[in-house]
Write a structure and sequence with these properties.
It is a multi-pass membrane protein. With about 375 residues, this protein is an all-alpha fold. The protein contains 14 helices and no strands.
């Protein structure tokens, strides 16, 4: 039958067309069933205590990091000026993890992990990077609204995926790449709308500086997650949870040392008293903000490290991105941050990119 044969146009097409949805529905049902079976099998492979720890760590990370971000902004909003002081407060809570280690040592007959030279060098590197990361975010929160800073920090998911792929060999599929592109677009939208949410007294140069440090801090955050997982895989071997606690104590302690050195060199220890006296609501409020900043940040990092140990860098990056809309909404409610149409669009795009990343990662797990 050639192209000019009119009988070609009289062939009924309704039966095949009707059959397509049936095939499509069957395919969707099959995929849904495979996904549900995969989730159920994954659940059965792990103990109840594992899921309890993972759920507890996830909830703690979301709440603690959100609270820490808001407290950092509150510090600057109520009269704080120093970048080093709020960075120092973030790691000043390192004894919290050390206290958690005491029961296993005293009652669990567990000995500390031998500290080799190679492992100690890794701890020094991670401690230095953590101190630098805290300082970068301090600059960001000094000049940016908390909602804007949190939206920009969603880019840490991008860097977690990339560093996880190159360093730890985690999967990076098309959905993950799509999420990276989408979240990047959300970051660009925030940059284009920079004039709408700049605080009075913050210059354009300061806003740009906060923007840049936020992105760099997010990149460093993703690198720290990937390197932490690499240390677990290559040196610690995921042997037990107390090993993760030891790692966190050492990294936080060394970050505390590095930050304390910066505080001394910058003469900010002496400035604490004058800052406290000029702080809104007085010295008591100043002490409470720094104390809770230390507690919440340390709990967030501890929970994030636990998630890297229990699951992977991927889940830690996903949860770190989940807190973005939580922080943005809380900042609008508590600090009355301006929420322009562009920022709302950026928030929607960020959540969309996050969803794409989760779906892509879940699909790769099902296929594997």
């Amino acid at each position: 039958m050639d192209a000019g044969d009119p009988s070609r146009h009289t062939i009924p097409v309704r039966p095949p067309a009707a059959a397509v949805p049936a095939v499509s529905n069957s395919s969707l049902q099959k995929r849904a069933a495979e996904f549900c079976n995969s989730v159920l099998e994954t659940y059965k492979r792990k103990s109840l205590s594992f899921w309890f720890l993972l759920l507890l760590s996830s909830a703690t990370m979301l709440v603690a990091f959100t609270a820490s971000s808001l407290l950092s902004r509150l510090y600057y909003a109520n009269g704080g000026k120093s970048k080093w002081i709020i960075s120092w407060a973030a790691v000043a809570g390192w004894p919290i993890t050390a206290l958690v280690l005491l029961p296993p040592y005293l009652f669990g007959r567990i000995s500390p992990t031998p500290l080799s030279l190679k492992l100690f060098v890794w701890y020094i590197l991670l401690g230095f990077l953590s101190a630098a990361d805290n300082l970068m975010f301090a600059w960001a929160y000094a000049y940016l609204p908390a909602s804007t800073a949190s939206l920009l920090s969603s880019s840490s998911l991008i860097f977690s995926a990339l560093f996880g792929y190159f360093i730890v060999k985690n999967d990076l599929n098309l959905s993950s790449i799509n999420a990276i592109v989408i979240i990047t677009a959300g970051t660009v939208i925030i940059a284009l709308d920079s004039e709408s949410d700049r605080y009075p007294g913050v210059t354009g140069k300061q806003y740009t500086l906060g923007f840049i440090w936020d992105i760099l801090g997010s990149a460093l955050h993703g690198l720290i997650f990937a390197l932490s997982e690499l240390v677990f895989l290559k040196l610690l071997g995921r042997r037990s949870f107390h090993v993760v606690l030891e790692q966190q104590v050492m990294v936080s302690l060394l970050a505390f040392v590095f930050t304390s050195i910066g505080l001394v060199v910058n003469n900010d220890f002496q400035r604490m008293r004058s800052e406290a006296s000029n702080f809104k609501h007085g010295e008591g409020s100043y002490a409470m903000v720094l104390t809770w900043a230390a507690i919440t940040f340390q709990l967030g990092v501890l929970a994030g490290t636990a998630i890297v140990f229990l699951a992977s860098t991927v889940l830690a990056g996903v949860l770190n991105a989940v807190r973005v809309p939580l922080t943005a909404i809380a900042a609008v409610v508590l600090f009355h941050d301006p929420m322009s149409g562009f920022k709302i669009l950026s928030l929607v795009i960020t959540v969309w990119g996050l969803g794409s990343y989760i779906v892509g990662h879940s699909s790769s797990k099902v296929n594997s």
